[in-house]
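Troubleshooting: if your tokenizer reports a length mismatch, compare your output against this known-good record of 293 residues.
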Amino acid sequence: MNLIEAIIMGLIQGLTEFLPVSSSGHLAIFKNIFHISTDTGLLFDVMLHMATLVAICFVYWKDIKELFVNGCCMVGLWVTNAVIWIGNLFRGKDNRKEYKRVLTTPYRRFVLMILISTVPTGILGILLEEVIGSASELLILPGICLILTAILLFIADRVKVGEKTEETASYKNSLIIGLAQGVATLPGLSRSGTTITACLLNGFSKEFAVKYSFIMSIPAILGAMVLQLKDFTLAEFAGGMIWNYLAGMLVAGVVGYICIKTMLVVVKKNKFTIFSIYCLIAGIVSIVFFFLA
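Known-good structure output:
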């Protein structure tokens, strides 16, 4: 991969990862229509995922810091309560200690919501792994899923605005949104578009819907990176490719940051219809090429 190709791949990653147009769907379409290999090297894939994480962390740095601090506090309190539980087994009924309250702040509820959303996402990701791999080789499923994405985005612009935040959203809401994220691993279904629509349908405020969608993606992205790293070898550091990879990573991070900021405006001003029309056209083109090929 030369420098120009690395920059183009970084641009595509930054644009399609955060805008609601489905990066997996576009890769599948380009691969099939233009017979382009999307195998860019394991190290480059990991670096692009890292750029995605950095972009999210830049936009939501204060929230992520609070989530990390409160998450550590929750772990400490859970350990304390476990020790108290063990101690209470050997104490008399009148001498038992009270358990420490864990969910005492909105950010601690936020942490638990993210954890609840991550579970169904991980389960569906594992169950659909083979389907996703085989589906990407054909144009029909990405085409259908892009049309579904268009429908979801059309709905998102017309949902009644809710007011739920981390303080008022339920854990059932988190479970439903996690299921939506898991289903969105199918090529052609936009992860951001699907999860933001699910958030809005569950009554989230617009700002919190975008925040929850992108912060919720962090465990999923980290999981994908870990799965890729198990096949990683130091041989990929050989040669001068690392500089091209770094250039692609930088482009993906910068473009991704801009796209997250753009999504905040898109949701606030109900501008999903533009992306809905685009996904509808892309889906129809994909299906047409499937039957003509």
